[in-house]
Amino acid sequence: MATSTLVSSTMQVYCAALSSLTFLQTFRADWKPTGLARAMAAVLILLTSALITINLTGNTLDILNNVIALLLAVLSPWTAINLVDYYLIRHGQYDIASLFQRDGGIYGQVNRPALACYMLGILVQIPFLSNGLYVGPIASLYGGIDFSWVIGILVPGAVYWFWARRPH
Question: CA nearest 19: which of 38, 32, 2?
Answer without folding.
Answer: 38
